[in-house]
Amino acid sequence: MDKKYAGIIEYANTLASDKLCDKGDFISLRDGDKLIITKSNADFSKLTESDIETFALTGCSGEAALHADIYAARDDISAIIHAHPENATAASRVGASIPAVLDDVAQIVGSVVKVAKGANGGSLVKALKGKYSCLIKSDGAIASGRTLDEAHTCCLVLEKGAKCYIEGSALGGAKKIGWFDAKLMRFVYKMKYSKQDQSAKMKEQK
Amino acid sequence: MSNEKVLREIIKQSGIRLLEHNLVQGTWGNTSAKLNDTSMICTPSGMDYIRLTTDDLSVVNIENPKEWIGSRKPTSERKIHAAVYRSCKEAGAVIHSHPTYCSVLAAARVSLPIAENLRSLIGGDEVKVGGYGLPGTKKLTKNTMEGLGGRKAVLMANHGVICWGRDMDEAFDVLKILEEESRLFIEKKVMEKAKAKTFSREQLYEIFENYVKKA
Question: Do A196 and B98 touch (CB under 8 A)?
Fold first, then answer.
């Protein structure tokens, strides 16, 4: 089996067992001038090769076009997960952006998880600017990264950050991390902390 | 097997245990074990726990954590680990991780009260939240150690938790208990606010929606 297909199947399984993804979600990978993506309503816990398809980055439609728009706008993104985890989805329903209230959120996601107004490439690219994640109004969240491994971690951390923000509201409110501190941590994460690990994984994914 | 080899194996396994119990995500968190009065063995900075081998661990000087021997740079939080061994002589293993429910309290900067039957294990009647500091800084070490006091755990503001045990198993016991107690504490707070006898996600979402409206 193609290495990229195998990678998607492996992470689909992991995301399903983490309870981050289910039917109705999507995983995609950049592959040169093409993208590889799971089909609509694929069962993530039992994903097979026949649940995955390949499109050219230009001229695709539907969910694939959303992912293609992100790949076109962002050189630093090569894997995307569109998921509906419990807490991130609850925030997306209310239309509430999630400020980084944890250091790891500031690092892998960014200073704030913004809400894209509509499920179209333009709003998603705007909400994702400088970040690896955003919410989509009433349609879950996007988690991304340089590799599937990073997009998976991004999804885990996004959901934890959403949970802290939501459950923190019962404890008097979670405290936001300062804007400058959050930007600094994001920079250090991308340029230093994760570099060796992600560079090795990027080579393997190619 | 030598003591050092045994400890290296225990630390390698501790990374897998953190992932398996969802006590950390990605390459964050770090663990260490005391080798002798002057040195500890630490996990490296930013490395995948699954790929980690016992050769990737470093031996770090407890008195001066800038000094270390190994093939990979040890975690940037080694200063906190060293400070724990210096101030808590009984400590044999230290875990720093990002478990979900502890993180909720850490983000809200709310201390966790400890029930009477758990106080001898934790070493006090509450687990405090240390003041905020950027990762790897002296300020974070100072604030975290102030929050720890003589207890076996401290929540790190907007970050996660540090805990220790006489050995790695005890450190994991402390960590898992904190995570469970944090979950129960949050549910209790939700029920109090909702004036309900049982916890439900719907009550929580209602509290959240009101909070967002005011924010």
Answer: no
Residues in chain B within 8 Å Cβ distance of A179 = none
Q: Is B122 on the interface with A (CB under 8 A)?
A: no
Taking the model in full, what pTM does it have? 0.96
Report the 10 Å Cβ neighbour count for A7: 20
What length does chain A have?
Answer: 206
Quote the CA–CA distance of A133 and A121 in Å, as a whole number.
14
Average confidence (pLDDT) per 10 residues, chain B, 215 residues: 93 95 92 97 94 96 97 95 97 98 98 97 97 96 97 98 98 97 98 95 96 88
B127/B178 Cα distance (integer angstroms)? 9
If DSSP codes are grouped into helix, strand and coil, which group holds residue B154?
strand
Q: Quick check: B204 and A170 CB within 8 A?
A: yes
Cα(A176)–Cα(A124) distance, integer angstroms: 23
A152: tokens are 């998976």
Q: Where are the beta strands (DSSP E) in B37-103?
A: 39-42, 58-61, 68-69, 93-97
What is the residue type of B152? Answer: K
In DSSP terms, B94 is beta-bridged to B32, B164
